[in-house]
Amino acid sequence: MNQHELLAKTNILATDWEKEFTVRFQATFEEKLSPAPENVAILVTSEYEGIFKNGGIGTYYKTLSEKLSSQGLYVILILCQTEKEFQGESSVAPVRHIFSTHEAEKVLQLQRIHQGILSGFQQWEWVESESYRILFFVQAIAAHFHQSPIYVEFPDLCGLGYRTIQAKRAGLLGQHCVTAVTLHSGQEWLNEAHEKYSLYPGWNWFKNVYGYEQYSCENADLAFFLSWFMAEKVKSYGWNMTHAIHLPYCFPIVPALDKKRPMLDRVGLNLKRQQIPIVFFGRLEERKGLLTFIEAIAHITQQFAYEEISQQLYLLFLGKTVSLHAPETEQQDSQHYIEQKLNNKFNYTIISDLFSQEAIALVQELAPAIVCLTSPQENFPNSALEMGQLPVSLVVSDTGGFRETLNLIERSDKVRWFEPGNSQSLAAEIANAIEVYPEIPVVAKPEFLAAVNQSLLNQRLEYMKQAFTQGTVTKQQLSSPESYSRLLGMTSDQEQIFLQDYAQNIYSGQGEIIDLGCWLGSATISLAKGLEINRRVALKYKRIHAYDLFIWNQYMEKTVKGTSLEAQYQPGDSFLDEFTRRISPWSPSIKVYPGDVTEMGWNGGAIEYLFVDAMKSWELTKSIIKNFYFDLIPGVSLVHYNDFAHYYTAWIHLIIYAMRPYFKHHCNLYPAAVFQYVKPLPKDTLILDLDTPFSIFSTEDVHRAFAYSLQISNEKLRPNIAAAKVMAFIHLRDLDQAKQELIKAREMFGNAGDIPIVAEQISRRTM
Question: What pTM value is reported for the model?
Answer without folding.
Answer: 0.60
